[in-house]
Amino acid sequence: MAAQRQAAAWQAQEQADLEDRQLIVESAYLSELQGQKGELLSKVAALRADLQEWRAKLEGQVKSYKTEVSDLRAALSGEVDALRGEFRDLKAALKQQLDAMASMHAAATAAALPQRPRSPR
Questions:
Q1: What is the b/e burial string over 58-69, where b = at least 16 CB atoms within 10 angstroms of the residue's CB?
Q2: Is the pLDDT of residue 121 over 70?
Q3: Pairwise CA distance, residues 79 & 52, whole Å
């Protein structure tokens, strides 16, 4: 009977030791996981900060490019308007020259035709 008690006590002690070892292993694993969690949270925070910085830079570049494109568009529009005015003036000058040449041609043609004597009436 004493042997049975001793064996039971020894088994209980071994079970307690096993549970203590499992607790130590689980505690160490939990500590390791918490450390990894902290590292991951730090990385996520750094990535978020990088993303915000990248977005701010990108927004600045987009705004700058939009302003530049708007300025270029305005300048181009001004140049196009100036060219239209020049073409209009050139068209008017060419029309005047053509009209003058047509008048001169008509006058030259009329002068070159033999004149018929007028009959008295």
A1: eeeeeeeeeeee
A2: no
A3: 40
Length of the chain: 121
What backbone phi and psi angles, to 5 degrees, belong to 113?
-70, 140
Distances (CA, A) of 111 to 104, 106, 107, 116, 119: 10, 9, 6, 12, 20
For the chain, what percent of residues have pLDDT higher than 70?
Answer: 93
Helix (H), strand (E), coil (C) string for the chain: CHHHHHHHHHHHHHHHHHHHHHHHHHHHHHHHHHHHHHHHHHHHHHHHHHHHHHHHHHHHHHHHHHHHHHHHHHHHHHHHHHHHHHHHHHHHHHHHHHHHHHHHHHHHHHHHCCCCCCCCC
